[in-house]
Amino acid sequence: MSVEGLKIGFALTGSSCNFSSVFPIIEDLANKGADIYPIISHAVDTFDTRFGTAEEWKNKLKDITGKELIKTIVEAEPVGPKLKLDVLVVAPCTGNTTAKLANAITDTSVTMACKAHLRNQRPLVLAIATNDGLGANAKNIGLLLNTKNIYFVPFGQDDAINKPNSVIAKFDKIEETIEAAILGKQLQPLLV
Q: What are the sequence ranges of the domains in the chain?
C-alpha cells in the first residue's frame, strides 16, 4: 500500500521535545504524495520552548503541507462532515489529549478534529508521548486500545530507569501504522 493520494490529517499536541522526530515523518509523507491537513493544539500554537518557538514550528508545518493550520475548535469541527480525511494521525499525542479522547472530552482543536473524524468511521492513529503512560494514563490508553477505529503507533518505555511510567511511540512506524489502520488492522507488535 502507498500513502500517495491519501488525505491525511496530522495533528500535533504539546510534546514539543518530540517535534524533531515527528516533523521529518510529516515531510516524508508529503514527499510521497500524501495530502496533509495540519491541525495544532493551543500549546503548539502558543508555547515557545527550549525546543523552538511556536512561530518556527507553525511556519515549518505550513511550508511542508502548503496549507493553513487548523487551530481552533470551530475550524476543526468541519474535519468530519466536509474534509472527510482517509486517516487522522495525532503525533505526538500527549497524556492530556489521550485522557480527553478516552473520556469524550472535546475542548480542543485536536480533540474536536478526532471526534469529527471518528463519526465518519475512519481510522484515528495515535502516537503517544506521555510521562504517565504506565501510571495515571494507563487506564486511558487501555480504554482507547479497545475502541473501534482507533489505532496506536507501536510504543514502549523511553527511559525505564529514570522515568518508569513514561512511554513514547516509535515515530518511525507512523507510516506503517497508517497503512495497517486503513486496512482496519493494528500494527504489531504494539509494545516494543
A: 7-182
Cα–Cα nearest to 152, from 118, 176, 187: 187
**How does pLDDT run across 121-146, given as a tens digit for each residue?**
999 999 999 999 999 999 999 999 99
The pLDDT tens digits of the residues spanning 98-124 come to: 999 999 999 999 999 999 999 999 999
Domain 7-182 has CATH 3.40.190.10: no
Whole-Å CA distances, 68 to 8, 59, 60, 108: 14, 10, 11, 17
Sign of torsion, CA 190 89 99 61?
A: positive
Write down the pTM of the prediction: 0.97
- Alpha helical stretches, state H, the chain: 19-31, 42-46, 54-65, 73-76, 95-102, 109-118, 138-145, 174-182
Choose among 112, 137, 132: nearest CA to 9. 112
How far, in Å, CA of 56 to CA of 50, rounded?
12
> What residues have CB less than 8 Å from 89, skipping those under 6 apart?
8, 9, 10, 11, 125, 126, 127, 174, 178
Please tell me the number of Cα atoms within 13 Å of 184 on its side-chain side.
2
Residue 66 CA to residue 73 CA, distance in Å, equals 21
